[in-house]
Design a protein that fits this description.
There is one protein chain. This protein has helices spanning 22-26, 52-61; strands at residues 8-12, 31-33, 40-42, 67-71. By secondary structure, it is α+β, with helices and mostly antiparallel strands. The strands form two sheets. It has a two-stranded antiparallel ribbon. Strands 2-3 form a two-stranded antiparallel sheet. A hairpin with a 6-residue loop joins strand 2 (31-33) and strand 3. The N and C termini lie close together (8 Å). Bound molecules: iron/sulfur cluster. Iron/sulfur cluster binds at residues 17-23, 33, 40, 62-64, 66-67. Iron/sulfur cluster (SF4) is lined by residues 17-23, 33, 40, 62-64, 66-67. GO terms for molecular function: 3 iron, 4 sulfur cluster binding; electron transfer activity; iron ion binding.
Length: 72
């Protein structure tokens, strides 16, 4: 329902991640890369609304469709 406790669900399919780092560049407060494996790590599964555009950019930029953004 619009305007009532909206949240965001960001999910990862790490097995798809190729470590390209586009998500980290788009939203460094939401994603980071594992130092050894280089794969994505989720820092904020429910980022605030002012970060939604950045998360959407991360989804669009990810070359392996490893990031899902599911606003509720
Ligand atoms: S942009 Fe996609 S492939 Fe690259 S690190 Fe992020 S999740 Fe992994």
């Amino acid at each position: 329902m619009a305007g009532v406790n909206q949240s965001v669900n960001v999910t990862l399919r790490v097995e798809r991640c190729i470590g390209a780092g586009q998500c980290v560049r788009a939203a460094p407060d939401v994603f980071e890369q594992d130092e050894s494996a280089g794969t994505v790590v989720l820092l904020a599964g429910m980022p605030p609304p002012d970060r939604w555009d950045a998360v959407r950019r991360a989804v669009a930029l990810c070359p392996s469709q490893a990031v899902t953004f599911d606003p509720r």
